[in-house]
Amino acid sequence: MRGNRIAVRFMRDPMENVFDILSDRGFVEQFTDEPALRKLLSGPVTCYAGFDPTAATLHVGHLLPVMALMHMQRAGHRVIALVGGGTGLIGDPSGKTKMREILTREKIDGNARAIQAQFARYLDFSGGRALLLNNADWLCGLGYIDFLRDIGCHFSVNRMLAAESYRARMKTGLNFIEFNYMLLQAYDFLHLNRCFDCAVQMGGNDQWGNIVAGIDLIRRVAGNESYGMTFPLLVTASGHKMGKTEEGAVWLDEAATSAYQYYQYWVNVDDADVVRFLRLFTFLPLDEIEAVAALTGSDLNRAKMILAFEATKITHGEEKALAALKTSSIAFGYKGCEGRLLPSSTIPREEVVGDLRGMPTSTMKREMLEKGISAFELFAQVGLCASRSEARRLISQKGGYINGQVIEYYDDLIKMEHVRDGGLVLRSGKKKYHHIVVN
After folding, report:
1. Could you tell me if 313 and 275 are in contact, meaning their C-beta atoms sit under 8 angstroms apart?
2. According to a count of CB atoms within 10 Å of the terminal CB, is the N or C end of the chain lower?
3. What's the pLDDT tens digit per position in 322-379?
4. How far apart are the first and last CA of the chain?
């Protein structure tokens, strides 16, 4: 017997099926039994997506399933954000060419607690509309022999090895501990189906084999029908993995990636990614987004600003998103009524007046600038370049700026005469800025 489905009020028009919403916005890569899944999603249902705590914060690469959960909740469904405190001890082999680093139980537990706190920014947990669970609560207490007898007997090794995540790893070596991952994820789905009437699992396309294994296990053990949906594994138009930059991952925790840096990631995306990212990472209407496709030049740059603002607002809140926008308006020259480009954007319609709050900032004593400091030394000192030799190369190639002006020679002296409004704004290349306050 299936449990009683929770009654959840629809936030959107109930005639609009969330399957179509996700599909139209580019979330859907694969799914099981479309007619049955679409029918199921026409009324309230419980779904889940899992997140293994391999770090103390999620990153931009996790945003696709997070945004999908948000769409599901906005459509009136109950969602489960599952933190993998148990599966994280094993390590998912999907998409990896070698075994993941095995983290300690203490490290995994600490990461799980930190990640759990992040979900409150994205999901509404009031009134049972969303659940936040940790699979360590049921996985870590399993008896190995009992688990093999009750769950392992339903798995065919031949079928497991046919899964892409395992087949790809057979070339480089698959550790036995990783081989168990599919069983554990399938058991998660079974547990959630039994205890919370969860009928839909969502995840990245590399999770397809694990999701299908869970559906099969539920049918064999509980006799229930369940469904799966996967999202595309995103790469940028330039071929880079989503959320990766030269400086490393773009984290969702402000302590790891500031709101200003987060905004900069989005405002500097490739032109070819703007429309796709507006669909996936904002809630702006599709008809407005499609109008952006024909834009070029400064108009497209304004669309990037809206993408950056809306994405930053979702993760860091409107106040910090607006502060990042104002800071960036100095650097990039955006000014005036940008929200009108996409009418549903919540950017204020008044002039966007730039300020420097949020930009990486350091202080410098007036005496240093009275004597003068070489440009390359200053760039290295504030961290815009990793070394003085790198700073020499950057400035020699006309990639160093002060207050918006190209620095002609790497050994040019920066002096008090360069100070504007009590400080200096340095720029490395197109994207990296630093504000110096002169005392």
Report:
1. no
2. N
3. 888 888 776 555 554 445 567 788 786 554 444 555 567 788 888 888 888 888 888 8
4. 72
Say whether 430 is catalytic. no
Q: Is 59 a catalytic residue?
A: yes
Tell me if 415 sits within 8 A of 367, measured CB to CB. no
Three-class secondary structure of residue 45 per DSSP? coil
Per DSSP, what are the bridge partners of residue 203? Answer: 230
d(CA 225, CA 217): 10
Q: Which residues contact 319 (CB under 8 A, 6 or more apart)?
A: none
From the list 25, 59, 191, 392, the catalytic residue is 59
Catalytic residue among 39, 121, 241, 420: 241
Q: How far apart are CA 432 and CA 332, in angstroms?
A: 11
Question: Residue 58, Cα to own-chain centre: how many angstroms?
Answer: 7
pLDDT band for position 430 (50/70/90)? low
Residue 241 annotated among the catalytic residues of the structure: yes
Q: Which of 245, 346, 393, 431 is catalytic?
A: 245
Q: Tell me if the pTM is above 0.90.
A: no
* Nearest Cα residue to 151 out of 201, 199, 185, 192: 185
Residue in the structure block whose two tokens are 């410098």: 364
Q: Who wins on pLDDT, 338 or 40? A: 40
- Phi and psi angles of residue 64, each rounded to the nearest 5 degrees, phi first: -60, -55
**How many Cβ atoms from other residues are within 10 Å of residue 10's Cβ?**
15
206 is catalytic: yes
Could you tell me which residues are beta bridge partners of residue 49? Answer: 81, 202
Neighbours of 73 (CB within 10 A): 21
Q: Please, what's the b/e burial string for 15-51 (b: 16 or more CB within 10 A of its CB; e: otherwise)?
A: eebbbebbbebbbbeebbeeeebbebbeebbbbbbbb
Q: Is the pLDDT of residue 122 over 90?
A: yes
**Range list of H helices, 335-425:** 366-371, 375-381, 388-396
Exactly one of 32, 54, 73, 264 is catalytic; which is it?
A: 54
3-state DSSP call for residue 203?
Answer: strand
The question of whether 398 is a catalytic residue gets the answer no
Alpha helices in 129-283 (DSSP H): 136-139, 144-150, 157-162, 164-169, 176-179, 181-196, 208-221, 259-267, 274-281
Our answer to whether residue 32 is catalytic in this structure is no
